[in-house]
């Protein structure tokens, strides 16, 4: 695309790369910080590091308090994405295919769950989780994040499903498919891209959510972002380690994007989002 | 095999979609013809079980199936839209009802799929997916899937309506042969009189959710009992002119004369032909025929369907001829009167 626009407008390519550079600079800067010692970070100001070291990454992977919180985030985020999808698929199907009393109101009410700031839910979550033993568990965080991910997932999936002719469902019933069999064999392959997009959004929102995740965990399920806010020690801030952790938190999102990259564009085009 | 609809009614949002339908058909093809919104699709959906009737029963082979779920009925359904499973190959699309039917196993499924694919001209396309096929091929796939499994009731809801002209003609001929050896009831709906007349099968005329007439389509075409039936079976549309019955006949008063466009000529066809002075308004040339729009005395419009290509000058005066023997006479309620056009005077 850059080539065709570049052909017509000579400066289009320049603008494009300028834009990319602006976006990339903070990320490159962070990556640069992560591969140099703290003294160099504080002592000199340059994009290219003079002394390259992987010490920061070694510290990260050598210290359980760091890498375990990284794993915690990955675990509860994955759990949340899968659980949200499992709950949202039948719900979205019902919203797209059946008419029942109050269906429109219910659909809207689901969306209102996204309208309240997460902070509103902090206290109830904290107290309920303490009482039922979900406090500081991966399951607890995953369930808490479903509060805003399920409505989103239902919304995305419903849009896609409504784009699939109802006659396909009927034809399957005529052919003798039971609903579950039809759903798995015929319907799910048709909304593959929707599922990809939904998983991506659930993963992303859960991954970047800090407030709830931090409040309802203490040690065993502590998210990486919470750990990153506690790097100030007696020796000052460990910039290099913090930068290394920052680089690593980008990796899972990038991996997920890589897997759903073909679906995202297709998905955005097909769905209502 | 018999299919009986016993006093079936469907109401939706305060409107009557089907009104007290009573219908009985046997093995083989039955054509269902009616204009838009006449209830064809609703009737088919009721038979399939996709639309529960508000009252009445559906009986297949003497058994009440009204409350049996769609998937447990022995039916097949072809839509006007080309509906296939997009994620499955053509082979799997056709095999799909067979795989769910206990009567078919392994090699028998394969044999049947290839047989039906051969019949519908899909043999070379079995590895493709529906999106890679043309519209005609997609609809052939849908029909092949419906034909694959022997069913009690095969329903086709205007299956050729979305196809272009050539494909429609070709598939129509193919289908007539396919239906001849169908084991169960075949219900075929259409809005196209040519289709119903070509199939020459027992025909049900629907209008506004009611059964208007059942019987032999050719007889109905020649002697339609009502104006609604005549209009449904006429394409191009019937010309309607007001008239008055001559004194001393079996009926009296105002009547409507139905004249099929191809019965209007520009030269007298027989000694009894009635001459109508007219002014030419418009000539539509379709290639093999010319549709001549005429203005008669008293601002009455008349369309003539003339074979061949003709050139006319709008505004030109001419004479149209109609053989009274081919004129249909209806009373004001729309029932056909047993009168010939010779017993009626044109009004005005």
The helix count of chain A comes to 14
CATH class of the largest domain in chain B: Alpha Beta
Unreliable runs of chain A = none
- Please tally the β strands of chain B and state the result: 19
What is the assigned CATH homologous superfamily of chain A?
A: MetI-like
**Fraction of residues in helix of chain A:** over 70%
Please state the second-level CATH architecture of chain A.
Orthogonal Bundle
How does CATH name the architecture of the largest domain in chain B? 3-Layer(aba) Sandwich
Largest sheet of chain A, if any? 2 strands, antiparallel
Classify the fold: give the CATH topology of the largest domain in chain B.
Rossmann fold
Number of DSSP-assigned strands of chain A: 2
Key terms:
heterodimer; A: 273 residues; mainly alpha; two-stranded antiparallel ribbon; globular; B: 348 residues; alpha+beta; Rossmann fold; five-stranded antiparallel sheet; 19 strands; 24% helix
In short:
With 273 residues, chain A is mainly α.
Fold blueprint:
The complex is a heterodimer of chains A (273) and B (348).
Chain A: H1 2-8, H2 12-34, H3 38-43, H4 55-62, H5 64-97, H6 103-112, H7 122-132, H8 138-162, H9 166-175, H10 179-190, H11 192-208, H12 211-215, H13 224-228, E1 232-233, E2 236-237, H14 239-270
Antiparallel strand pairs in A: 1-2
Helix pairs in contact in A: 2-14, 4-14, 5-8, 5-11, 8-11, 11-14
Chain B: E1 3-12, E2 15-25, E3 28-33, H1 40-48, E4 55-60, E5 63-64, E6 75-78, H2 90-99, H3 106-119, H4 135-148, E7 153-157, H5 165-180, E8 185-190, H6 193-199, E9 202-207, E10 210-216, H7 217-222, H8 227-232, E11 239-245, E12 254-259, E13 264-265, E14 274-285, E15 289-296, E16 300-307, E17 317-322, E18 328-330, E19 344-346
Parallel strand pairs in B: 3-8, 3-9, 6-7, 7-8
Antiparallel strand pairs in B: 1-2, 1-4, 4-5, 9-10, 11-12, 11-19, 12-18, 13-17, 14-15, 14-17, 15-16
